Amino acid sequence: MDFWFFLIQVLNGVQYGLLLFLVASGLTLIFGIMGIINLAHGAFYMLGAYLAYWLARTTGSLSAAVLLSLPIAAAIGYAIEALLVRTLYRRDHLDQVLLTYGLILIFNEATRMTWGADVHGVPVPEALNWSIKLTDTLSYPAYRLMLSGVCAVLAVGMYLVISRTRFGMWVRAGASNRDMVAALGINVKLLFGVVFAIGAALAGLAGAISTPITSVAPGMGDSVLILCFVVVVIGGVGSIKGAFLGAMLIGLADTFGKVFVPDFASFTVYGVMAAVLLWKPRGLFA
Amino acid sequence: MNTVLPRRLTIALLLLLAGLALFPAWGPLAFAAKYTFLLQKLTGIMILAILALSLDLLVGVAGLVSLGHAAFFGLGGYMLALLSPQYEAASLWVALPATMGAVALAALVVGFLAIRTAGIYFIMVTLAFGQMGYYFFNDSKLAGGSDGAYIYVKPTVEAFGTTLVNLESKQAFFFVVLGCLVAVYLLLRVVLASPFGRVLAAIGVNEGRVRGLGFDPAVYKLVAFALAGALAGLAGFLAATQYGFVSPAMLGWHQSGHVLVMVILGGMGTLFGPILGAFILELAHFGLEAVTEHWLLPMGMLVIAIVLALPKGVAGLLLQWCGKKGDGE
Amino acid sequence: MENMKGISRRTVLRAGAVVAAGAGGFVPTRFAIGNTAKVKVGFLLPYSGTYAGLGEAVTNGFKLALEERGGKLGGRDIQFIAVDDESNPAKGPENTNKLVTGENVDFVVGPVHSGVAMGMVKVVRETGTITVIANAGAGAATGPLCAPNIFRTSFTNWQTAYPMAKVAAERGMKNVVTMSWKYAAGEEAVAGFEQGFTKAGGKIAKQILVPFPQEEFQANLTEIAALKPDGVFVFFAGSGALKFVKDYAAAGLKSIPLMGPGFLTDGVLKEQGAAAEGVLTTLHYADALDTSENKAFRGAYRKAFSKEADVYAVQGYDAGQLLFQGMGTVKGDSAAKADLIAAMETAVIKSPRGTFTLSKAHNPVQDIYLRQVKGGQEVVLGVAEKALADPAIGCKMG
After folding, report:
1. CATH class held by domain C158-283+370-388
2. Sign of CA dihedral C379, C173, C177, B147
3. Per the CB < 8 Å rule, is A262 touching C208?
4. What residues in A contact B302, CB-CB < 8 Å?
């Protein structure tokens, strides 16, 4: 096992983890503050990817497509919160599960009716279509490096917003005690709508910027959703810091699981989660 | 948890049950050529209803929301596949108890680990164990891997050398499954009326208070988990018997989610609700699919409409109509 | 005879004392309507989810074949009944049952997913319904589970992979890494290649199987780079194929030849773009085949559906041809099962892929083409293996 091999595998794991974090952070925010288990979160990831694919095709620029798909995803998220989710806050968690499950079905089918059932891809932008050569055969694609950079910047940004701003204070308050937020005289309706929109935008962003390294296909959100739940639960529900660590853990466990125990590769991720929860039943940070 | 249903509701449910039981008599007249297919379809729905019933014990009564319940369903099916000699029939008297026992044991182990957590964490741990089960059968060569496995000959039901029921007969199998459904329903009613069931229901409402009264909730939850697992195993056993085919998808989270939807849709904690939920969801699926290729769209809308309009599921609505508030949640 | 059967069954039904049919001992009855009734063709295909596009192509191809031939089977009008199999193996038997028992179809055409095919085979082996598999390549369906009423117009996973071994050996490769999803189709393809390659004196440096349908390949690509093989043989299809080929190129592995069954590039070539340049594939069809049959087929398909035809459309088209020939021979008498099956067994199908016949196990004996991506186009380099038949290990028929 030489050094470069190991380094690249770590990079692979970290990059995968960062992308998972981007999707999972929205999920943990929504759950932490609003107490909503949003199964439709993966659908926003898919929506972001389809929007980016479609807009990249129309505008000819991926960056423009990503920037345009962000507000669209946020707007759709806000609308769904205002029209449907809002009516369920006083209800059982399970009603929310059922509602968002219904949303998955609608999103999946609507996407298919709009963009067809074919598999689509988005080319890597010319400026980033090169690799960094590390040894004679090992190299690392520049786009993935850029992707990791964007995710890392967002993670730091999110950390700063949550630890330094008034909005972040509400978020922290909401995560630890939801009723307190209302008691503080905050416009809860607006806060919830904004949080849901931000969560949708984060998932949409993750879907959009990953289009060049993934394939855009119906149902692509489902597998991501499950992994993100794993991440959120490992980290502790509502904790951004936890989501970050959980995502890293899953990214690395998946990568090294495939390399060292290929026969149990499908088990590693779930095994890690089961182990963490048996050790800390409420996740790492909660 | 009140185990006595309003009189009018009881009568309505019994009428529905009678209609179902008499399907082999009126079905051929009403549906002619499609009768056999519908008989099998109804049999399949009743099997899912048993699965939904078993999940209701966890979700609706004990407040344990499991998103991995299909693992026990699938395990039940695979147990039959593994216990059946390749071209011979397994005996039901051996295969069924062995299956339910093995599944109960598996549920005991998973449950022991899972009930240390609560709320969303419990949902996720059960999901994780469910997925592990899925990948176990998907990846191992034990029973056909991702291709699934066949059960060539259905189990025999014999006593003293004579065949009591021929499971190869679709009609006989229909009645066997109907019998199982009624038996499971009655069993769970008895369980809920027992001191054990009352404590379990109390745990679902307020676990802390139950602990304060000197009971150990973990023991009750664990027993419920094993019982629900064994009943899910029974459903899986029946499902595998019906078509003689098992595949890893039986254990997957989609299947778990599907059953959970049945429970919530029907009205959790009511036992009869999840049965209705299974019928409504499956028949809606069946009907919509016949109308449009894009059936997922109206299906999703239907689910949302029911959540918004019927907070306590179909059962809640029925209980309200019959002049009694739904309780237990 | 036929009338008698129909009436007696009806009477029994009316009496409400149906003794449900046991397995195999019961031939689906056509009722007393003779040869004037519509032929019922049931599609068991995915119309939702990831494989929906494939299901649509098979359906289109099948319908095109029959429209070109007057829209009838053996002189009878056709009624199509489509069931969405959802690519869900657990529902395979039930959805098949919906067609054979619920709709009493004369023929079943489908499916795409191998797992669904296994569940379908289970049911139609019991009912005896004549079934044409128009895609799923599971070896077992025309191997240990072969049956007189089960036909295939597509391929076996082995068939699409085995010929590549010879190509690899001829090109001087000694050390090859194989990779696939850990599921039946992939494992069968990889096994086919490995069998041929080791026989030709080559060595398998490593076999990598990743969980299906996960599409995160980075860890394994890094592994491949570290192993420095002479070539890489993979089985991926659909979105996985699109992603793998792009990731392979991005990881700087383009200097190592990439090979695989044609699904690696079919249908996703345009989306793969420059990343697919040079990829070698073997398949029983190529869009660019320069034959008059293929050109005519592609033209007609484009005209009918405003879409480009693909290998799935061809397989559906040939399923239509196969049923057309069979039903033509028995003059539309779908109840004459033995004759119908005999006619189908000896059919010679003038397919867009080239003319093929069926093996004793009812699988196509067909040419496998070697193709390479050049300038963004799939170019046919030649025939990798002529008239290749699947060994059909375990099939006791014929």
Report:
1. alpha beta
2. positive
3. yes
4. 102
Contact A94 B329 (CB under 8 A): no
Cα–Cα distance, C130 to C124 (Å, whole number): 8
Radius of gyration of chain C (CA): 22
- Which residues of chain B are within 8 Å of residue A104 when distances are taken between CB atoms? 300
Q: Which residues of B194-229 are buried (b: 16+ CB within 10 A; e: fewer)?
A: eeebebbbbbbbebeebeeeebebeebbbbbbbbbb
Q: Which of A10, A54, A124, A137 to mutate to test the interface with C (most CBs of C within 10 A)?
A: A137
Question: Is 50 exceeded by the pLDDT of residue C141?
Answer: yes
Choose among C20, C83, C88: nearest Cβ to B170: C20
Consecutive H or E run containing B277: helix B272-291
HSE-CB at B248 with a 13 A cutoff on CA atoms is 23
C194-216 residue pLDDT tens: 999 999 999 999 999 887 777 88
C367: its two tokens: 């040419």
Which chain C residues are within 8 Å of B151, Cβ to Cβ? none
Q: Quick check: C229 and C205 in contact, CB under 8 A? A: yes
Q: Would you call B42 an interface residue with chain A, using a CB distance cutoff of 8 Å?
A: no
- The answer to whether the Cβ–Cβ distance between A213 and C49 falls below 8 Å is no
The CA-based dihedral angle spanning residues C13, C15, C17, C20, taken in that order and rounded to the nearest 10 degrees: -10
Task: Give residues with Cβ within 8 angstroms of C66, minimum separation 6.
Answer: C72, C73, C78, C320, C324
pLDDT digits (tens, 9 = 90+) for C380-398: 999 999 999 999 989 988 6
Is C80 at the interface with chain B, CB within 8 A? no
**CA atoms C126, C132, C136, C138: torsion sign:** positive
Nearest to B296 among A91, A108, A229 (CB): A108
The residue to which tokens 């595949």 are assigned: B247
User: Cβ separation of B129 and A274 shorter than 8 Å?
Assistant: yes
**What pLDDT does A133 receive?**
82
Residue B45 · residue B282 · CB < 8 Å: yes
Q: Cα distance from C14 to chain B (closest Cα, Å)? A: 6
Domain B7-321: which topology?
ABC transporter involved in vitamin B12 uptake, BtuC (1.10.3470)
Superfamily classification of domain C33-155+291-358: Response regulator (3.40.50.2300)
Chain A nearest-CA distance from C283, in A, is 20
Question: Least CA distance to B310: which residue of chain A?
Answer: A95
Residue C25 in contact with partner chain B when CB distance is under 8 A: no
Q: How far is B181 from chain A (nearest CA, A)?
A: 25
Q: How many CA atoms lie within 13 A of B180 on its CB side?
A: 27
Using CA atoms, how far apart are residues A82 and A72, in angstroms rounded to an integer?
15
**Ordered per-residue pLDDT tens for chain A, 286 residues:** 578 888 889 999 999 999 999 999 999 988 888 888 888 999 999 999 999 999 999 999 999 999 999 999 999 999 999 999 888 877 777 888 889 989 998 998 899 889 887 788 888 888 888 888 877 777 888 999 999 999 999 999 988 998 899 888 887 777 677 677 777 777 778 888 999 999 999 999 999 999 998 888 877 888 788 889 889 989 988 888 899 999 999 999 999 988 888 877 778 888 888 888 888 888 888 6
Instruction: Categorize the per-residue pLDDT at B323 as very low, low, confident or very high, splitting at 50, 70 and 90.
Output: low
DSSP string, A169-180: HHHHHHHH-HHH
Strands C349-351 and C364-374, sheet pairing? unpaired
pLDDT at C398: 67
- CATH architecture of the region A13-131+140-279: Orthogonal Bundle (1.10)
**What residues of B are in contact with residue A281 (Cβ under 8 Å)?**
116-118, 121
- The whole-number pLDDT of residue A286 equals 67
Domain spans, chain B: 7-321
How far is residue B260's CA from residue A98's CA, in Å, rounded to a whole number? 9
